[in-house]
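S.,

Sequence below, as promised.
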Amino acid sequence: MTWNLLPRIYVVMLVEGGFVGFMKAGSRESLISALAFGVLIPLCAAAVIRIPYVAES
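The prediction came back faster than expected:
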């Protein structure tokens, strides 16, 4: 298993969990937050979004 595969698995599980929360409880907030973080995680993993001061504290 490569390190590149781990964020992909996490994003799939995250979005799937948001979708399940939406289908079972009708929670739009769960779906929206899962999709938002599902977009941000790959961008951070690809170093498109970088916040160096967080890691250096």
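Helices lie at 5-25, 28-45, 52-55.

Coffee later?
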